[in-house]
Amino acid sequence: MEDLTKRQSEILDYLVAHIAAKGYPPTIREIREAFGLSSNRGVVDHLRALEKKGRIRREKGSSRAIEIVQGSGSTDDTGRWLEQVRRYPVAGRIVAGVPAPPMEEDSAGFVIGGGLFRAEGDFLLEVKGDSMEGDHILEGDLVVVKRVERCGNGDTVVAMIDGEATVKRYYRTGDTIELRPANPSYEPIVFGGGGKQHCRLVGIVIGVIRRY
């Protein structure tokens, strides 16, 4: 199958992401604006090239009638990526510092390709605070969280403490659980052995997304 040019690959990736996020393809005008093209003719030429090279199918007479060809064998495995892509909801914001009130709900979401993280996550949380900066989790980052009931020592976790939420590293020794920050300005939070008594594990952090 004939290789794509750089711009054709970029447009194909844009089509895949748009369909995954919204359930339908973009219009020619939306593609033109996304890539800063000067006219619709340029978009049409790129779409014709993608169709000729077997990456998409188009239906005449409809501005949104674009279908991605599965298993099209593109150089970046776009067909396989489309099968794995999913939309992650942003469940809210979580404090990397002292525990804060429960996570706020947020209707936004992000489309992320499959295979990017070591496991499949369930939702995203936006980080506020700097207690995990030693682990390169910074304020404004999005952490990818997988819901679990158990975790191992050293895992970075999201936990609810007496109804308040935080992100920390998890360590357990006997009946004592310690949630450690990755910043010496903050103290560990200890459960059992005279420490706080109510801690609920929400999930483990399996990835971090940073927006620039």
TrEMBL record:
Q: Which domain of life is it from?
A: Bacteria
Q: Which InterPro entries match?
A: LexA, LexA-like, LexA/Signal_pep-like_sf, LexA_DNA-bd_dom, LexA_repressor, Peptidase_S24_LexA, Peptidase_S24_S26A/B/C, WH-like_DNA-bd_sf
Catalysed reaction(s) here are: Hydrolysis of Ala-|-Gly bond in repressor LexA
Active site as annotated: S131 (for autocatalytic cleavage activity), K168 (for autocatalytic cleavage activity)
Biological process terms from the Gene Ontology for this record are: DNA repair; DNA replication; negative regulation of DNA-templated transcription; proteolysis; SOS response
Q: Which stretches make up the Peptidase S24/S26A/S26B/S26C domain? A: 89-206
Residues covered by the LexA repressor DNA-binding domain: 1-65
Q: Which UniProt keywords apply?
A: Autocatalytic cleavage, DNA damage, DNA repair, DNA replication, DNA-binding, Hydrolase, Repressor, SOS response, Transcription, Transcription regulation
Q: Which residues make up the annotated site Cleavage?
A: A96, G97
Any matching Pfam family: LexA_DNA_bind
Task: State the EC number(s).
Answer: 3.4.21.88
Cite a single GO MF annotation: DNA binding
Regions recorded as binding DNA: 28-48
Q: What does this protein do?
A: Represses a number of genes involved in the response to DNA damage (SOS response), including recA and lexA. In the presence of single-stranded DNA, RecA interacts with LexA causing an autocatalytic cleavage which disrupts the DNA-binding part of LexA, leading to derepression of the SOS regulon and eventually DNA repair.
Subunit organization: Homodimer.
Q: Which family does it belong to?
A: Belongs to the peptidase S24 family.
Query: What is the name attached to this protein's record?
Result: LexA repressor
Which organism does this record belong to?
A: Eiseniibacteriota bacterium
Identify the coding gene.
Answer: lexA
